[in-house]
Amino acid sequence: MNESDHRARYETRLARVLDHIYDHLDEPLDIGRLAEIACLSPYHWHRIYQAMYGETVATTVRRLRLHRAAGFLANSSMPIAEIAERSGYSSLQSFSRTFRAVFGVPPAQYRRQGAHSRFRPALSGDDQMSMMREVTIRSVEPMEVVSVDHVGPYMQIGKAFDALFGWLGQHNLLAGEMRMIGLFFDDPSVVEEQKLRSKAAVLLPGRVMDEVRTAVAANGGVSLTRIRGGEYAVLRHVGPYSDMRAAYEWLYGTWLVQSGREAADAPAFEEYLNNPKETAPAELVTEICLPLG
């Protein structure tokens, strides 16, 4: 067994840990249980996890819980005390302190004044002209991307990205110039959250695509997906991913209906221009790309 095979074994074991974390965010962190899931020694597995993923398992859990908490604050009326409890904090004060350290503002202020709030005047008609100028029309070349399917809340598509990056690592296909893309097929206002369909995808340099196709053909969990070329309306969003629902509502409900354009029969996609593991939520940059007919 060569070095690549050994790494693949560890990737597979730790992927099971990530799956469990995503599916049990409401539960206390049990290091012993995670070691069992990884089939690794409880004395050593978390060191392996940190070496391979660049953060401790506790940091992963905290990041995912706070990411979900921001979604609750931006997109629901759930009481902040309940959000704190679901995020694993014993007191509202400790939750508020940690949330502020990561997002730059306390939870209540984020709910009122987060990046999502800038779309409210435009949605109500008060500031439509300045917002209309934020959309650019861009010609996009057709793309073939390697992808992993995700079914469930869009806020948990990171689960599919983790699986995709694990697969790319196993096959030595990680590349510095790759582009991260998410494709979204359903409207969360009409489709049940647990049934929402999306894909986590990566656009790789052309020189490695032959290797990618060979590896994909031998693996049922990863696929190749075509993204249509043509004109797209592109809205650049700066801020946490949890704030983007309001951006979508404005892009479809205000910009599109006033632009005189028609949406093409193809899914919208998002391109993530920086890494959420290395970037403060307020500085995340995402381009929302709406295909036009």
Automatic annotation (TrEMBL):
Q: Where is the signal peptide?
A: none
For this protein, the record's Pfam families field holds: GyrI-like, HTH_18
Keywords assigned by UniProt, alphabetized: DNA-binding, Transcription, Transcription regulation
Which superkingdom heads the taxonomic lineage of this protein's source?
Bacteria
Which residue numbers delimit the HTH araC/xylS-type domain? Answer: 15-113
Q: Which segments cross the bilayer?
A: none
Q: Which SMART domains match?
A: AraC_E_bind, HTH_ARAC
In the UniProt record, does the keyword Transcription regulation occur? yes
What are the GO MF terms of this UniProt record? DNA-binding transcription factor activity; sequence-specific DNA binding
Please give the SUPFAM superfamilies that the UniProt record associates with this protein.
Homeodomain-like, Probable bacterial effector-binding domain
Query: PANTHER family given for it?
Result: TRANSCRIPTIONAL REGULATOR YGIV-RELATED
- Its recorded name reads AraC family transcriptional regulator
